[in-house]
Model the fold of this input.
Amino acid sequence: MDFILKIWRQQDSQAKGKFETYQVTGISPDCSFLEMLDILNNRLIDRFEKPICYDHDCREGICGSCGLYINGRPHGPDSAITTCQLHMRRFRDGDTIIVEPWRAKPFPVIKDLVVDRSAFDEIIMAGGYISVHTGSAPEANTIAVPKVKAEISMDAAACIGCGACVAACKNASAMLFVASKISQLAVLPQGIVEAKERVRKMVARMDELGFGNCTNTGACEAECPKGISLTHIARLNREYFAAKLL
Amino acid sequence: MEKINTKIPKGPLEEKWAHYKATQKLVNPANKRKLDIIVVGTGLAGASAAASLGELGFNVKVFCYQDSPRRAHSIAAQGGINAAKNYTNDGDSVYRLFYDTIKGGDYRSRESNVYRLAEVSGSIIDQCVAQGVPFARDYGGLLENRSFGGAQVSRTFYARGQTGQQLLLGAYGAMMRQINKGTVALYIRMEMLDIVIIDGKARGIVTRNLLTGNIERHFGHAVVLATGGYGRAFFLSTMAMGSNGSAIWQAYKKGAYFANPSFVQIHPTCIPVHGDYQSKLTLMSESLRNDGRIWVPKKKEDAEAIRNRIKSHRDIPESERDYYLERRYPAFGNLVPRDVASRAAKERCDAGYGVGSGLAVYLDFSDAVKRLGIDTIRERYGNLFQMYDKLVDEDPYQNPMMIYPAIHYCMGGLWVDYELMTTIPGLYSIGECNFSDHGANRLGASALMQGLADGYFILPYTIQNYLADDILTPKIPLEHHAFEMAEKSVKEKITKMMQIRGKTSVDTIHRKFGLLLWETAGMERNRQDLEKTIQEFKALKEEFWSDIRIPGNDHELNPELEKAGRVADFIEIGALMVRDALSREESCGGHFRTEYQTEDGEAMRNDNDFMHVAVWECRGPDHEPALHEESLSYENIKIQTRDYKH
Ligand SMILES: Cc1cc2nc3c(=O)[nH]c(=O)nc-3n(C[C@H](O)[C@H](O)[C@H](O)COP(=O)(O)OP(=O)(O)OC[C@H]3O[C@@H](n4cnc5c(N)ncnc54)[C@H](O)[C@@H]3O)c2cc1C
Ligand code: FES
Done:
């Protein structure tokens, strides 16, 4: 298959970026999107040009490193996958494909398609955990957790922290990301003790970092590679108001 | 030889760890604040260690090469984590987990370490549950278990097919909490390139800031390496793209011994290779072997017809299917350990019975779907099935999966003593980058257990035994000569690589090298090929150092430069792997020398000559490495030939 690629190139965070056009030919439909970029990069190296920078590591949809904005959608045209799981068979031969980094103020561009997502770590740092010292935990089966709750918790915990939700949102809101952590811990008996503190601190930090408000458009849910549902945002809101009331 | 002091505490096996903890030296709280500890790596091992050491009050600095500590490759572990809780009442115990691990490792691991691992396994589950890890539960709300290869009990805890992710996020959360408190400082997008030794002790590291290219110096009273496995030496593997052996390799070059480098694990259930552009292989969790049955056609003609797409699996009636693991190993069936399952797949494919490209076998769920219903299968393996579908574009609820073995894990790594300290005082190695617990073959779901055991429950104790003597050592200024020298050599290596400006991309050489390594030191090894490969590696090394091409410069984000540094080290590690494989004239676990096999193709161990850990010492670029032995003795376990047939 052959493609025309329009890719965002930007030397560093200060530089002005622009789209460059590249052609790739002879690509197998079973090639992954990132492998297609590898092939392009190897051709650039052959010409002694700088290869295109993008984040990636596990290449199996779980580390959350990769994240490209492809033809106007985070992680491209397929749903429920990450960029590294996208395959060229999802495109038509001869297609023009536009590739951009995540566009969101709290995620500044570092170079080409690489952005700085450390704001997510900051939010977790503010309280996205249960405070338990190593060695102080009770026997694991002391507290039973209803199966349905454990399942809801796991649904929320599936978040990989890729940032697609923020990139998809016109307000650059991080509500789905924050909600996934809040929800995971709020439905478990272990997480209840700190629930109020947690939601207050995480939301406050999210606001400080410049993420926008949630206006319920649902783009985040649609683009989330792990299918994390808006119901978690509803739970976050309930938790937040309950915490505020006290 | 005198350096190989295992420091195994005296006394009966069951009392060693308790006795050690009761008598070891500790550091009091006021002094902990004065002590700096460097932890390189934020996977299960590194994150759990950093969190626990921070909680204790030490000053911790933690490093990873990714943009967030949560992305360490532990995140990719799917199937589960073992612990001897015996919740299923099926006869499990600390002793049985210990026994299974030693046996699974083909009697090439150290009794005392393995016993301790089994002993602390239960606390790991307690800890993770308290952190909010959403493990699978039954309808009564209690924790659920599944079985994994090499065990006859169900002792594997899991969180759908994302166990590693959930455990890592638990440890990451604990670590972020300490970062918030200021006891741990986090350094992301930083790669450790050298270790600094002062007066014979590990005292710091030199790193490269991957965004700016700045070379930086960091002091620590002790240094902990938790950098994961070096399986990406093979190019194609289930490891992450950035996984590397560079940190432990620098340690080796500076005097830390390297144990059993050739012991690598080949995982039987991965998605087969499909093209020469492919960059990595994807694992399908071993847990699938609980319900999936592995088969190939009984007749060669059928296999060939399938390969030529004249027939499909549907055309092969039940009576014409060879469930070869169930046939060869009736007692364990599809749940034999990984090395056995991998070799059996290779045997069938080499004999002409493979499907797909010829290098693939079926993993079939149709019986399980009939028995349990599609909903149960979806609940157990939903995300794995989705992953397969997305990758291969075929629905595994309807068709059997196709799988083939791939490089997955390194049992080998830095040699450590009972305290997890390397032969360099003050340098520790935890998690996959040490060699300690899995012998010649690791059992499924035991790496997560080991990483967290090391980080939460072992290192935080043992490191104090060393640091207690260091409380009066002031921080060593970064201007110290040893830091300067380390920085200089790092910069020289970078400059040298940048200046080659040859014709070949780093990936091209890595691919070539990796394939060679796979062919000679992969599933089967033999003297002739191994000897030949040593020569070929020399040529490849030369090609690397004279012909690689790295565009851009060294003071910017430059992934080609990062890769080059890692590949330079992989080529050297590969040479040591081959040397080690050559010197071990027996077959054991994942190490299968074709010269040493029984008539029906099973591994033939040689306990008289090789019941030891092969421990390699670097003696500089101009000398061959020296081989030492740590002999293994089994006082609490009867040594047997591994038998999964009866
Ligand atoms: C696909 C897959 C599935 C698996 N499934 C299971 C399973 O179900 N059960 C099980 O028990 N085991 C499983 N394993 C094995 C297990 O996941 C690993 O052995 C284990 O997680 C390794 O943890 P670690 O902490 O030692 O290293 P890692 O998690 O690999 O972490 C390494 C860390 O070191 C850092 N690092 C590396 N090099 C450098 C450097 N030079 N400078 C700075 N930082 C560096 C990285 O940034 C990272 O933070 C699986 C492995 C894979 C690949
Ligand atoms: S590279 Fe890990 S999720 Fe894509």
